[in-house]
Design a protein that fits this description.
- About 45% of the residues lie in helices and about 30% in strands.
- Helix 1 (about 1-20) packs across helix 3 and helix 2 (about 45-65) packs antiparallel against helix 3.
- By secondary structure, it is of the alpha+beta class.
- It is elongated, with a radius of gyration of 20 Å.
- Strand 2 (about 95-100) and strand 3 form a beta hairpin.
- The chain has two domains: about 1-95, no CATH class; about 95-199, no CATH class.
Length: about 200
């Protein structure tokens, strides 16, 4: 039942994101916060999938001899095409946020992780490659949220934290790494807020 609820909610939020993106109605950004995109790392791959899917729809329609199957393939094809546009929309509509209260790390609809500034000791820009094993990895207290097999921002925590990320298996996290398209700008904004917090 939980899985069904998750799938339904995911679909609903995906279509809402597509609506927001198409009609230029981004999700509200809290006052004093800045948004930072991360979709650039996978844009080429997503666009390639979208183009291939768009080409596949008329090809299958012409190749299939049965009318019912052709209609079904059209429906499935267009649904898949719009779903991929929706996935891209979720990444554009829900960016990382840097604001007075802290850092908010996001990835589409699957990750929304707020980190208060009092829990951050240091933040820096550094490009890293991830070893094979998935885009979310946890090893030696380091939690990595990779895109295109890499991360660009390191967040060293002020103290070990147990975070609601299943890959950690309840183990404390000492450092978080994630991808941002403009890591230097994100880090500069974060450090400005951290100085204000200390002051």
């Amino acid at each position: 039942m939980k899985l069904v609820k998750f799938v339904v909610m995911y679909e609903v939020r995906l279509w809402i994101a597509l609506y927001r993106w198409l009609f230029r109605r981004p999700a509200p950004v809290p006052p004093g916060s800045e948004s930072f995109q991360y979709s650039g790392a996978v844009m080429t791959i997503l666009v390639a999938f979208i183009v291939v899917s768009a080409l596949e729809i008329p090809i299958l329609h012409l190749m299939l001899p049965w009318e019912l199957v052709r209609v079904l393939s059209l429906a499935v094809g267009f649904y898949g095409l719009f779903w991929m546009f929706g996935l891209l929309a979720t990444m554009r509509v829900y960016p990382h946020l840097v604001g007075p209260d802290g850092l908010r790390i996001r990835n589409s609809l699957t990750l929304d992780l707020p980190i208060p500034w009092e829990d951050v000791r240091e933040i820096r820009s550094r490009g890293r490659s991830l070893p094979p094993g998935g885009k979310t990895q946890f090893e030696g207290g380091v939690l990595s949220f990779g895109l295109a097999s890499g991360t660009t921002v390191d967040v060293v925590l002020a103290r070990p934290l147990v975070l609601p990320v299943k890959q950690t298996l309840g183990e404390p996290v000492t450092e978080i790494r994630f991808h941002a398209d403009t890591p230097d700008a994100l880090v500069a904004a974060a450090r400005a807020h951290m100085r204000t917090e200390v002051g």
